[in-house]
Every structure is written in structure tokens, then in C-alpha cells.
């Protein structure tokens, strides 16, 4: 093996190691994926355990470090905030976002101080 191949291998391994380290160190907000329609980013939150809900209202499909996939409708609690999910709308405290298009996925950002930002809607495969 010549030096250039050895350098390329070391460079690639170092790049992967640096990327892995940065992905674990950079804080990612928790994202709630509800009914394959609502994609709610909880800004400033790093743990899915901060979201509380009744198992009779929501079913956990999958969970990882920064994502929680749920199906159902009802009420979720996030710190002092109440998130309510209906069939065609979702609300955070006094803010409400709704859509009547069945195939529309909505990206929403919820902030700890109660602000809400609606992101760009995307078409889903339902």
C-alpha cells in the first residue's frame, strides 16, 4: 500500500469520526412526528421524555434520541405547555394551526416561551 492510499484511508476514517462526534455533541431539538402529518419541533428540548401523554390517546410507533413517532389524537404536555392534536389541527396553548388537505404534512416549531412558527408544508404519501 503506498502512502497516498494510506493517507486517503486515514482521512476518510478521521472525517467519519469527526462527523459522528459532532452529531453527538450538537444539540438537536426533539421532533414529534404525529399521524405522519404533524412534524413538531420542540425548540430547546433535548429529551423525548419531556413530552408526557396518555397511552390511551397516543401510541408510540418509534422513538430515538431526538424523534418521537406517535399516532392518535389528544393532549400532550411539554413542560408548562399543552399541545392538543385533532384530526385536522394542532394547537399549543392559545395558538392553533389547521389544514383540511389530507395529504399535507405540516412542519411546526414550538418554542419554550410559547411562540409558534409554521414551516413550509410538504406533501405526504397517505
Overview of this structure, please?
Strands 1, 2, 4, 5, 10, 11 and 12 form a seven-stranded mixed sheet that branches. A five-stranded antiparallel sheet has the order 3-6-7-8-9, with no helix packed on it. A hairpin with a 5-residue loop joins strand 10 (104-110) and strand 11. With 126 residues, the chain is an alpha+beta fold. The mean pLDDT is 82. It has one helix at residues 3-25, and strands at 30-34, 38-42, 51-53, 58-63, 67-72, 74-78, 81-85, 89-92, 95-98, 104-110, 116-118, 122-123. The termini are far apart. It has one domain (30-123).
Could you name the key traits of this structure?
elongated, five-stranded antiparallel beta sheet, 1 helix, seven-stranded mixed beta sheet, 126 residues, alpha+beta
**Cα-atom Rg, whole angstroms?**
19 Å
Termini gap: 52 Å
What series of H and E elements makes up the topology?
Answer: HEEEEEEEEEEEE
The share of residues in helices is 10-25%
Number of helices: 1
Structural class: alpha+beta
Biggest sheet features: 7 strands, mixed
The overall pLDDT, averaged over residues, is 82
Total count of strands = 12
Total number of domains: 1
Give the strand content: 35-45%
Morphology: elongated
Segments where pLDDT lies below 50 for 5+ residues? none
Please provide a brief summary of the model:
This protein has one domain. The chain is built from one helix and twelve strands. It has one helix spanning 3-25, and strands at residues 30-34, 38-42, 51-53, 58-63, 67-72, 74-78, 81-85, 89-92, 95-98, 104-110, 116-118, 122-123.
Amino acid at each position: 500500500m503506498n502512502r497516498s492510499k494510506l493517507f486517503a484511508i486515514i482521512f476518510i476514517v478521521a472525517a467519519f469520526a469527526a462527523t459522528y462526534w459532532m452529531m453527538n455533541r450538537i444539540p438537536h431539538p426533539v421532533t414529534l412526528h404525529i399521524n405522519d402529518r404533524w412534524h413538531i419541533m420542540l425548540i430547546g428540548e433535548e429529551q423525548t421524555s419531556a413530552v408526557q401523554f396518555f397511552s390511551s390517546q397516543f401510541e408510540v410507533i418509534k422513538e430515538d434520541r431526538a424523534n418521537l413517532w406517535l399516532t392518535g389524537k389528544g393532549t400532550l404536555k411539554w413542560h408548562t405547555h399543552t399541545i392538543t392534536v385533532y384530526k385536522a389541527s394542532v394547537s399549543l396553548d392559545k395558538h392553533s394551526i389547521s389544514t383540511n388537505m389530507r395529504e399535507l404534512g405540516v412542519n411546526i416549531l414550538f418554542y419554550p416561551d410559547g411562540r409558534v412558527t409554521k414551516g413550509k408544508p410538504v406533501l405526504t404519501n397517505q
